[in-house]
Specification:
The structure is a single chain. By secondary structure, the protein is α/β, with parallel strands linked by helices. It is built from 6 helices and 4 strands. It has a 4-stranded parallel beta sheet, with helices on both faces. Helix 5 packs parallel to helix 6 (about 155-160). The longest helix is centred in the middle third of the chain and has 23 residues, at about 85-105.
């Protein structure tokens, strides 16, 4: 009985692998549903998880397969200093900044991706600049940094990341 179950399992596994081993063009034509890209949300409430995933996915591959995503929240518009909205924003912002600083400061495992995005590109790059001060020269070789932001922030982000030796990829926020 045990031998029969093992044989059945191996046969099913072989069929599953065969089904997954289709040429890319054949698989693409079988599922020819058009890909609709969503635009970047303009505030903290938008569907950032979907947008972030959509923009990051092309940069995850066999070599870089461990993404760590940092979504930097936008400062609430019109909120008074000390208001509950501002206090909550500051808490979230500080938590993301601390998380990135801890990761960059202690070093990141090769093959990892740090990805950054948020509705306010300036704040996203502020976090990158502050955090990457903690990276030693060439300390992040074989790490990929993906920054999803507005084009006017590209130079600042790249200048902050370059000394670390990480691969820098800039994705224009659309």
């Amino acid at each position: 009985m045990n031998r029969l179950l093992r044989t059945a399992f191996l046969a099913l596994a072989a069929l599953a692998l065969a089904a997954c081993d289709k040429p890319a063009d054949q698989a693409a034509t079988e599922t020819a549903a058009p890909v609709v890209k969503i635009p970047a949300p303009t505030d903290n409430a938008g569907d950032w998880r979907t947008y972030f995933s959509q923009e990051l996915t092309p940069y995850v591959d066999r070599k870089f397969r461990r993404p760590f995503s940092y979504l930097i929240p936008m400062k609430p518009v019109g909120a008074a200093e000390g208001s509950p909205e501002m206090i909550e924003w500051q808490r979230q912002y500080d938590a993301q900044l601390e998380s990135v600083e801890n990761a960059v400061g202690r070093g990141i495992q090769a093959g990892s991706i740090l990805a950054f995005a948020g509705p306010d590109s300036k704040l996203v790059v502020d976090v990158i600049e502050e955090s990457f001060k903690l990276a030693g020269p060439k300390s992040l070789n074989n790490v990929r940094i993906v920054v999803i932001a507005k084009p006017e922030e590209q130079a600042r982000a790249q200048a902050a990341v370059e000394p670390s030796g990480a691969e820098f990829i800039f994705v224009e926020m659309k």
